[in-house]
Amino acid sequence: MEKAKMVVVGAGPAGIATAVEAKAAGIEPVIVLEKEENPCHTIHKYYHEGKRVDAVWQGRKVKPIGICQFETCSKEEFLKLMENYIQEYNIDLRTSQEVHKIEKINECFRVWAGKDTIIETPIVVIAIGIFGKPVKPRYKIPKEVKNKVFFGTQTQCTPGAKKILVVGGGDSAAETACFLCENAEVYISYRRPKFFRINEQNLKELEKRVKEGKIKLLMDTDIESLSASPDDKVKVHFKDGQEMVFDAVCYCLGGATPENFLRAIGIELNDNRPKIDECFETNIPGLFLVGDLVFKKGSIMAAFNSAHIVVEAIKNRYRDRLERGC
Ligand SMILES: Cc1cc2nc3c(=O)[nH]c(=O)nc-3n(C[C@H](O)[C@H](O)[C@H](O)COP(=O)(O)OP(=O)(O)OC[C@H]3O[C@@H](n4cnc5c(N)ncnc54)[C@H](O)[C@@H]3O)c2cc1C
Fold this sequence. Notes:
The chain has 2 domains: 2-132 and 255-324, 3-Layer(bba) Sandwich (FAD/NAD(P)-binding domain); 143-251, 3-Layer(bba) Sandwich (FAD/NAD(P)-binding domain), CATH 3.50.50.60. Helix content is 26%, strand content 26%. It is built from 8 helices and 21 strands. The chain has helices spanning 13-24, 41-46, 75-88, 171-180, 200-211, 259-265, 300-317, 319-324, and strands spanning 2-3, 6-9, 30-33, 52-53, 73-74, 92-94, 99-105, 108-113, 117-121, 123-126, 149-151, 163-167, 185-190, 215-219, 223-228, 234-238, 243-246, 248-251, 269-270, 273-274, 287-289. Helix 4 (171-180) links the parallel strand 12 and strand 13. Helix 1 (13-24) runs parallel beside helix 7 (300-317) and helix 4 (171-180) packs parallel to helix 5 (200-211). The relative contact order is 0.19. The site of flavin-adenine dinucleotide has 36 residues, from helix 1, helix 2 and helix 7. This is FAD-dependent pyridine nucleotide-disulfide oxidoreductase. Pfam families: Pyr_redox_3.
């Protein structure tokens, strides 16, 4: 069995920043386990090519406090920045290593990943984000239309669709609509009468496309159900009785806490949110959470900052255990 001083689960912005902060603090060895083939899987999968990665996200300006920081840039520039952190801090990143079990035995954790990786460590930091579980609507998606319905802005999944409905009212809904409207007629359905948490830049871009007639806004609309239309499209039934037909529907409703994963480890939850203290330590001593898992509305800068807070707490609370190891 391999031994480490710290295991980080997930190599998104929060996981990489945690490893960077830990290495800078002299904690060694630190192992980062990532389930996909590349780090930053959420960004690879959900951000469209050339997407602007905003330093101010969901209208929240977060002042950087740690080592990892960034300024608004493109998706490709951001991924390069993360790659540079991995190189510069010589991060031991293991990809295609999905963590499926974490167990505490006496003072140490055993972390199981992939087919046969088992690592023993006194400290575990979980950084798996929330986009493994995109939020879905309450109504059922009929199986006849499942191949035309997408969650979490999988923009690459709608080739050929000429009329698309984007559902949601946040930044990712605005960006998805602006991206898709270059090749399709796009509608946005949002339950509120106006957008209130979109950043300025996205609002400007959206208003421009609306003026140009490329995007049509269906404000104050609520969807009741979906069905298959006779011409093999998706019929959307709104609560006010209106019906519209689309080639594809993209739900941009954000992500949800991976409750089952956290509960299986023994982490206590309250109202579907993990119980954590001011330094993001869970009810299990030595087990911390970072990134989107700890915020109601997460962002990259908030994820970076959470990594700094957690590593500071680990240094203060677990100095002995880090020295002793397992
Ligand atoms: C479309 C879209 C656009 C966005 N645009 C912006 C923006 O412009 N600016 C901004 O600040 N924020 C933006 N965000 C939000 C931002 O992406 C998140 O806040 C950020 O990615 C959170 O980082 P994280 O490391 O907590 O989680 P994630 O980035 O989700 O990373 C989690 C990682 O953990 C891995 N993982 C999951 N389960 C396991 C497991 N069991 N074992 C091992 N690894 C696992 C995943 O594969 C992934 O690589 C956007 C989000 C979306 C969906």
